[in-house]
């Protein structure tokens, strides 16, 4: 995520850059989320009006794609693969451990705002499951102990 900017400026910049592009809605949504870290509900009517869409259409796109957030996320995003290949080698146990270790369920953020936990349905690392992505880095063969180590490194890097 880039530096957080004013909500109005983020929306205006997204409109300016993408309003005339094919598929403008997705481009605008990504630009807003890149700027703000999420897509606030308050901007949905503005996006709909700008693109001559209904608010339901805009909301439908936001809710369909799992990468869009409607609430601020943590400083880091931890994704755990839930695809069959990862489940076959322990992903369910890993996700239970992660939820307990972080004290949150999926789509929630730790109370200190450090980590948002998110399920994904394939990280493309099937031969090395269970897999986890922390921000933009994928890790394979993640055990509970390795998960704890990765989280400790993540938190140490934030201090």
Structure characterization notes:
The two termini are 19 Å apart. Helix 1 runs antiparallel to helix 2. The longest helix is centred in the last third of the chain and has 15 residues, at 144-158. Strands 2-3-1-4-5 form a 5-stranded mixed beta sheet, covered by helices on one side. The radius of gyration is 17 Å and the shape is elongated. The protein is built from 7 helices and 5 strands. The protein has 2 domains: 7-64, no CATH class; 76-158, 3-Layer(aba) Sandwich (Glutaredoxin), CATH 3.40.30.10. 47% of the residues lie in helices and 13% in strands. The protein has helices at residues 7-18, 24-36, 44-51, 55-64, 84-87, 91-102, 144-158; strands at 76-81, 108-109, 115-120, 132-134, 137-139. The mean pLDDT is 93. It has 159 residues and is α+β, with helices and mostly antiparallel strands.
CATH homologous superfamily title of the largest domain: Glutaredoxin
The average pLDDT score comes to 93
Write down the CATH topology of the largest domain: Glutaredoxin
Gyration radius over CA: 17 Å
Oligomeric form: single chain
CATH class of the largest domain: Alpha Beta
Tell me what the CATH architecture of the largest domain is: 3-Layer(aba) Sandwich
Outline the low-pLDDT stretches.
none
Which percent band covers the strand fraction?
5-15%
Structural class: alpha+beta
* Overall 3D shape: elongated
Helix content: 40-55%
Order of helices and strands: HHHHEHHEEEEH
How many helix segments? 7
**What is the strand tally?**
5
């Amino acid at each position: 995520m880039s530096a957080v900017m004013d909500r109005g400026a983020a929306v205006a910049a997204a409109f300016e850059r993408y309003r005339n592009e094919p598929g403008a809605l997705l481009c605008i949504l990504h630009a807003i989320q890149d700027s703000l870290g999420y897509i606030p509900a308050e901007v949905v009517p503005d996006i709909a009006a700008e693109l001559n869409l209904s608010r339901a259409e805009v909301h439908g796109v936001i809710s369909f794609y799992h990468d869009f957030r409607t609430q601020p996320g943590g400083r880091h995003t931890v994704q755990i693969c839930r695809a069959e290949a990862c489940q076959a080698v322990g992903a369910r146990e890993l996700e239970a451990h992660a939820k307990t270790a972080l004290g949150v369920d999926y789509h929630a953020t730790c109370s200190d705002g450090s980590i948002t936990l998110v399920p994904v349905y394939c990280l493309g690392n099937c031969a090395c499951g269970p897999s986890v992505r922390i921000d933009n880095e994928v890790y394979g063969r993640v055990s509970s102990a390795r998960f704890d180590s990765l989280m400790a490194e993540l938190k140490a890097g934030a201090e």
